[in-house]
Amino acid sequence: MAKPQDVNDAEFGAEVIDSDIPVLVDFWAEWCGPCKMIAPVVEELAGEYDGKAKFVKLNVDFNPQTSAKYGVRSIPTLLIFKGGAPVGQVVGAVPKSVLQARLEDAMTV
Length: 109
Description:
Layout: E1 5-6, H1 9-17, E2 23-28, H2 33-48, E3 54-59, H3 64-69, E4 77-82, E5 85-91, H4 96-107
Parallel strand pairs: 1-3, 2-3
Antiparallel strand pairs: 2-4, 4-5
């Protein structure tokens, strides 16, 4: 089963911007309670969308450049990229149905 991949500022372009398939980026931090709440949902969706979308996690404490570039001010923030640009966003720990609906919407853009 597919799992979210950890990425850093240096890898972001190659793993997210240059991806041929949509990418959900989970901006998170180890100390963030809501981030821990949504992590299992992101893992579950990564398995369900294996081959259709990529899932990555970016720790904001260690990767401030990418976080700042995309205006991430609170976590968890989940951005959905398609064709190298953000096309969807979810902020906070949300139910799986909400995140899945946003992902589906972004994939059809």
